[in-house]
Amino acid sequence: MTLPGYWFKSTLFEIEPGEDEEVNPRIYGRQLAHWLKPQLERHGYAVADVFPEDWGWCVECNCESHRLFVACGSIEDFDAKPDDPLPSKESVTWHCFPAAEVPFLSRLLKRIDTGPELSRLDAALRVVLSNESQITLVGEP
After folding, report:
1. So which domain of life are we looking at (predicted)?
2. What is the pLDDT along the chain (141 residues), one digit of tens a residue?
């Protein structure tokens, strides 16, 4: 289960050369994910790890019954060519959203309601993003 999330502009996050080699090409967000880690910890989350996925960067929170995380990255630039320069941090639209995954066996054996924890994580994420003066929420791209 996922929630729609947040789209925003910010000058806080640099795009690091080569960071998209760990994810899909022209997807960025390493600095965003690492910035979110202590922000979520201040809201009571024990962040287990920050790591790349093919779709972007994952900020995984500890949860006993299922996987709870914030997915984050940039909106893909489909017009970019492999040799194009990295986009400027001012031109990037960032996206992050809370998500939960229940392991297959747990789904078979019992019903796990991820809604309350997912809503709590979404609320924390909204506060974190809204309270940062260098982030401007822009809605959907």
Report:
1. Bacteria
2. 566 899 999 999 999 988 888 998 889 999 999 999 999 999 999 999 999 999 999 999 987 667 789 999 998 766 777 778 888 888 899 999 999 887 655 555 567 677 888 899 999 999 999 999 999 999 765
Distance CA 112, CA 75 (A): 31
pTM (2 d.p.): 0.88
* Element containing residue 69 per DSSP (H, E): strand 67-74
Read out DSSP for 2-22? B---EEEEESS-PPPTTGGGS
Distance, CA of 31 to CA of 35 (rounded, Å): 6
Look at the chain and count its residues.
141
